[in-house]
Amino acid sequence: MNTIEKTDKYIMKSYGRLPLALKSADGVHAVSENGKEYIDFGAGIGTNSLGYCDNDWVEAVCKQAQALQHNSNYYYNKPGADFAEKLCAVTGYTNMFFGNSGAEANECAIKTARKYSFDKYGKEKKRYNIITLKGSFHGRTLATLSATGQEEFHNYFFPFLEGFIHAEPNNIANLKEKLNDSVCAVMLEYIQGEGGINPLEQEYVDELYKLCAAKDVLVIADEVQTGAGRTGKFLCGEHYGKRADIITLAKGIGGGLPLGVCLANQKCANVLTAGTHGSTYGGNPVALAGALAVLEKISKPDFLAEVVKKGEYIREKLSEFNEVVKIDGKGLMLGITLKTKTAKDVMLAALNKGLLTLTAKEKLRFLPPLNISYDSIDKGLDILKGIL
Ligand SMILES: *Cc1c(COP(=O)(O)O)cnc(C)c1O
Known about the structure:
The chain is of the alpha/beta class. Helix content is 38%, strand content 19%. The protein is built from 13 helices and 17 strands. The chain has helices at 3-10, 43-46, 55-67, 78-91, 102-121, 142-147, 172-178, 202-214, 237-240, 285-298, 301-318, 343-353, 374-387; strands spanning 22-26, 29-32, 37-40, 95-99, 129-133, 164-167, 183-188, 191-192, 198-199, 218-222, 246-249, 260-264, 324-330, 333-338, 355-356, 358-360, 363-366. Strands 4-12-11-10-7-5-6 form a seven-stranded mixed beta sheet, sandwiched between helices. The chain starts with a helix and ends with a helix. Bound molecules: pyridoxal-5'-phosphate. Residues 101-103, 106, 137-139, 189, 193-194, 222, 224-225, 250-251 line the site of pyridoxal-5'-phosphate (PLP).
């Protein structure tokens, strides 16, 4: 049996996989088991921030793997400490919790928000509801599925967790209606990723923060997809001039190894106390040694300025395509609305021609490595041009 046959036989079919098995890769280029080359505009769903097998990342990971691969959270470890110090310096947040995924980071955020309210207002107040937005995606665990504001995710796995209220994005009247005394937090994606690259409007975000501040309701920004430089700022909240109380990062922050981070400001920094939360693999030294190598590069202002420029360059080139109606997103997180073709058909055609892309709802989605070269952008877009 080949890789595809074996996978389909022995691994649960929870993914709608494409018929491609990758064997090796370098930068923006991936090579299949049959030796075919691909330009990758998806970067492992935005996880490989510096592309495949960046030299510094590989070196940091290998060095740490040889020194000590894991030591549990009973003990301290240097890669975690160094990474946390650097991430606080870069973001201005007070402290953080490490998990292994976006869903886990969001679970931590949800628990932190609920306990913040429990500690401050008491159990009797039942101030535990979290407002999330329709069209959002927050993960696949039961709590984060319940948080996810898309009906299509609310099947099969009943009962879902109570305590989530779904509000209309960019609709202040609707938010006001739902923001009652039972609410401890509002959780948002500044730009909905899986939901279709849908940005929140500045005015809405302004008003949301005001309303929350007035009621001591926490704001949780799920920056799992938008964070870690993806939009050309280290945090997407910077575009909006906003600092959430709690921020979650995953995908690109690990640079290709599993890492989820829940960051807290001063207000929420001491909510989780010993024994209230944990994760066996959380804070794994190998993942964090790699993440530190990535963080050192992607947090540099010059690097982020390049992300902005490359995003603009792609937009400019795309705008010349007849088939492109609209381009949403920021930096190197782009959602493309097509005139006549479906995103899925274009993605499949691109795959055949050697370009890997993603979709997000009905849009074609690009999340290329943040350090992609202009030459690779040109090559990828030439393939796309042939298809469109
Ligand atoms: C991908 C994603 C998640 C879930 O991350 P996992 O690592 O798959 O658990 C959560 N929130 C957002 C915004 C995401 O894009």
